[in-house]
Design brief:
There is one protein chain. This protein is 40% helix and 14% strand. Strands 1-2-3-4-5-6 form a six-stranded parallel sheet. The longest helix has 15 residues.
Amino acid sequence: MRERLFIATKVWTSGRSEGIRQMEQSFQRLRVQKMDLMQVHNLVDVATHTKTMLEMKNQDKIRYAGITHYTSSAYAEVERWLKTGQYDFLQINYSLAERESEKRILPLAAEKRVAVIINRPFAEGALFRKTKGKPLPPWAAEIGVQSWAQYFLKWIVGHPAVTCAIPGTAKPEHMRDNLAGGMGLLPDETLRRRMTAYYESL
């Protein structure tokens, strides 16, 4: 299975030695010799850990280096680090309820050819609370959407700068439903605008 999996993790601590210890612990826990993606979580001690990650990348211990954040209050700092050109991946929040990253962050990632992982794709459940008991649009089936989760995820991954979304769940049936959001037709910008308008009309 290893060759079929993309294994990613994060470092989230301060100090070089503690960062290395945490990264090495991830290698042990995930039972890998080479990590596909190591990310500095929430930009904690990002300068220190970026240096370590790039060293590990040169040693062929990791394939890609990245940074993460989940709130718009950090976008200015995220921008600053993205502009350094040191990263292969960015993980950031984006959804129909949290669209701030589409203004500057997503275009910058596309310009820098940085892959984008979307966190908080359901805005911590806010999207489901807004749509609870509401019907999908009559044209949903035409674009392969069978649930609100699929609607929200297709809208996200339809953005040209987005590589993937990472909805969290502990329920296998939700995982299957979420996976279907990445299958079939992905909406272009015209369809994404239509999806946005319908969501906002509820």
